[in-house]
Fold each of these.
Amino acid sequence: MAADQAMYAAKHGGGDRISLSVSDTQRAESTVPNRGVTADGIKLVIDVTVLAVDRLLNDPQGDSAPNLLIRVDAWEAQVFSALTESDATEVDKSWFRVLSTYQPAGLPGATPEHAKIRNELAEKVERLREITRRLEERLRSRRR
């Protein structure tokens, strides 16, 4: 959690330049408590993913970029609660948060900044789907 908080502080305090060494990542992953993945925890992650699609990506509110960013930040807080509750690894949380490289989905926006926020959100939704798949695999392997 400390590495995750340090990354978040670095991103928001130092622009978009974030660095995390492999040893930091390994150390963060090794500190995840072994509560175990549950179906309810996975459902929470699915719910916040659906919320992003329904209320942020496909929402016709026409928010300005700053207003959309406020809503996305609030959604991300819900995502991290769901990821923690679902027993996602610190590596998965970091992978969700840090968009070092990705291919924009080509979503339009009212302004270039608005389009950037929407495309970053689309990437985060895809990453949540992958994290959900990993969580489901962990749950299945535990049941065997």
Amino acid sequence: MTEHNGHNGNKALRWKQNRQIFKDVEFPSGAIADLQRVDTQDMIAEDGSIPDTFYAMVMEQEQAQSRGEAFNVSGAEAKEFLKTQTYLTVQAARKAFVSPRIADEADYENDVIAIADLTSADKQFLWGWLTSGGTPAEALRRFRQAQQGGSVVAAPSMPSVLPASVAGNGDNG
């Protein structure tokens, strides 16, 4: 076996070494983290608990956005959409955070935070960053423009923000 990068040919270690870590990503709350990209489409496809109605709503949202129309859901659909979007964001955060890591219980001395440490704005920013491509700085600029009423183009693969009828109903933790 030939030695490569000091890993004695271990391809898994080389693969891990080559992943891109984005250092010092600043969140809307001002918190800083090191993140890695997560393939959200693969994550969703692998997760067996996502309701089919969510996929239909995502497709409807993408079609409405492509026509320049607002996407609105209400009642039980809005509640289900919010619940699923929150679940997906939590799962993505667990995979994306390199430092600090995210666990069920915070252990601040060992560089571990709980999902409850992220504000709603931080969670929304994270999902937008993961689904937008681009750099963390570009994603934060787009997020802040959206918060200030500027124009932002939604990510084509998944909704980067909740539908207008749901957005005001998020939690802060």
Amino acid sequence: MKTNRLLRIVGITILYIIMAGIWTSCASLSSGEIVQSETTASSEKEYTIEVLAVPGKYSPTMSSVRGITLSVSNPIDDTNIIYNWQTSGGTFFTSISGKESTEYSGESVLWGCLFDESATSSTSDTITIKVTAINSSTDKEVASTSISIVQEGLNYIVQNPK
């Protein structure tokens, strides 16, 4: 009885590891994932941050995908750094949904569209998402970057900046 339970736990663990590997492989195939940033000059150290966006293409019709997960792929190694995310469209799904989200220690944020009648239009809209690294002890911006998400009908595609 205990042996069967142990085998089942080991099997489930192996299955999770395999699925995580497949998810990582699929995510790395998405276009426009890592986006280069601009460096913001200040009297403090200069940092460069990049945004990782997974998946690179999203549609609200994808039942198993809640939105585009955004994270800083190279977080600044400083406990005083917070990341402020802002979007010109859609929303961040955090404890309080909205156009702005502040995350500590480089946690990821989940962005999604606000589905309404205009989402089915054939026009192409561009949404800008900006992340700013702020030193919370000095309240100074130390780095920032932005990415674009282009809406094409029901699809939202992450674009590299120009």
